[in-house]
Design goal:
This protein has 164 residues and is mostly helical. The chain has two helices and no strands.
C-alpha cells in the first residue's frame, strides 16, 4: 500500500524550489511588503493620533461653548434685571411726576377758586354798597322834599353828632 508516499527526487526538487522562492521573496518582496506594512501601521497610528487630537479639540470646544453659553446667560439675566430696574424707575418717576403735577393743578385750582371768590365778594360788596347808596338816596330824596322834614333831619343829625 503505497498510497501517498512522495518520491525522494520530488521532495528535493520541491525543497530547492521552496528555498529559491524564499530567497527571491527575501531579496525582492520582503522589504517592500514590510515597508508597506510599516507605512500602513504609521498611517493608522497617525490617524489614531489625529482622531485623539480631534476628540480633545472637540472636548475643549464643547467646554468653551458651555462657558460662552454660561456667560451669555449671565449677561442676558443682567440685561433683563437692568431693564426691569429701568422700567420700575421710569414708572416710579412717572407716578411721582403725575402726583406733583396733580398737586400743582389742585393748588392752582384752589388759588383760582380763592381769586374768583374774592372777586365775587368784591362784586357783591360793590352791588350792596351801590344798592345801599341808591336806597339811601331815595329815602333822603323822599325826606328832603318836605322842608319841615329837612329841618328835623338836620336837627337830629346835629344831636347825634354832639352826643358822639
Amino acid at each position: 500500500m503505497e498510497l501517498l508516499v512522495p518520491e525522494f527526487g520530488l521532495v528535493i526538487f520541491q525543497t530547492i524550489a521552496f528555498l529559491l522562492l524564499m530567497f527571491v521573496l527575501a531579496k525582492f518582496a520582503w522589504k517592500p511588503i514590510l515597508a508597506a506594512i510599516k507605512e500602513r501601521e504609521q498611517s493608522i497610528d497617525e490617524a489614531l493620533n489625529k482622531a485623539e487630537l480631534a476628540k480633545q479639540e472637540m472636548a475643549r470646544l464643547t467646554a468653551q461653548n458651555e462657558e460662552l453659553m454660561k456667560t451669555a446667560r449671565a449677561e442676558r439675566d443682567l440685561m433683563l434685571k437692568e431693564a426691569k430696574t429701568l422700567k420700575d424707575s421710569i414708572v416710579n418717576e412717572a407716578k411721582t411726576q403725575a402726583q406733583t403735577e396733580g398737586a400743582k393743578l389742585i393748588e392752582k385750582a384752589k388759588i383760582e377758586i380763592e381769586n374768583q371768590k374774592k372777586a365775587a365778594l368784591y362784586e357783591l360788596k360793590s352791588q350792596v354798597s351801590s344798592l345801599s347808596i341808591e336806597i339811601a338816596e331815595r329815602v333822603l330824596r323822599g325826606q328832603l322834599q318836605d322842608k319841615a322834614k329837612q329841618e328835623d333831619l338836620v336837627a337830629n343829625l346835629l344831636k347825634d353828632v354832639e352826643l358822639n
